[in-house]
Design a protein that fits this description.
14% helix; globular; two-stranded antiparallel ribbon; mainly beta; 167 residues
C-alpha cells in the first residue's frame, strides 16, 4: 500500500483550542471539517495524548481558527511543536476568548468557529470531536494556509501526533 496517496488529499491547517481548569491549550491540526450546514457542525481530530484533547473533553467546547498564509514557521512551531502543559502558546500571539469560552489567537488566523461539544468518537490514536457552531467569524481576507503549502513552500514536517503522520 502506498500511504503517500494520503498526501494528495486536500487539507487546511488549523489551531484548535480549549480551556479547562485555568489551562489554555491549543494545537495545530489538519483535520477540521464542516459536517452539516443545518445545524452547523464541525468535526476535529485531535491526538489523544495532546493536552488540547483533555481540555476539549473537560470543557465541553472548542474553538477552531483557520491559519492563513501569513503564518510562518515560528508561529506553526509555537502551536504545533510544544506542549500546552509546560508552555503558554497564546502569550506570544495574543489571546481572545470565543463565544464558548475557548481561547484563540487572532494573529495569522482568517476565520474562527466556536463550538459546543456534542459528541466524541474514539478513532484509535485520535478523538474525533464533533461540535455545534455557536459562533463563526471571518477574521481577515488572507488566504487559508493549506497542508500542501505548508509542505512545499514552508518546507514543514509532519509531527508524530498528527493524524497524517507516517513513520
Amino acid at each position: 500500500m502506498d500511504l503517500s496517496a494520503f498526501f494528495k488529499m486536500t487539507y487546511g491547517l488549523y489551531v484548535v483550542s480549549a480551556e479547562a481548569d485555568g489551562l489554555r491549550a491549543g494545537c495545530i491540526i489538519n483535520t477540521a471539517v464542516q459536517v452539516t450546514a443545518e445545524p452547523p457542525r464541525v468535526s476535529v481530530a485531535v491526538n489523544k495524548d495532546n493536552v488540547t484533547a483533555r481540555a476539549i473533553a473537560q470543557s465541553g467546547a472548542f474553538a477552531v481558527t483557520a491559519i492563513d498564509k501569513t503564518a510562518d514557521m515560528p508561529y506553526i512551531g509555537n502551536f504545533g511543536f510544544r506542549s500546552s502543559d509546560t508552555y503558554d502558546k497564546f502569550e506570544k500571539y495574543g489571546c481572545e476568548t470565543s463565544a464558548v469560552g475557548s481561547p484563540y489567537a487572532p494573529e495569522h488566523a482568517c476565520a474562527l468557529i466556536a463550538c459546543r461539544l456534542i459528541n466524541t468518537v474514539d478513532v484509535g490514536t485520535h478523538y474525533l470531536f464533533i461540535g455545534e457552531a455557536v459562533d463563526a467569524q471571518v477574521l481577515s481576507d488572507e488566504e487559508p494556509l493549506t497542508y500542501s503549502y505548508y509542505h512545499t513552500v514552508l518546507k514543514g514536517k509532519t509531527p508524530p501526533k498528527a493524524s497524517s503522520y507516517q513513520a
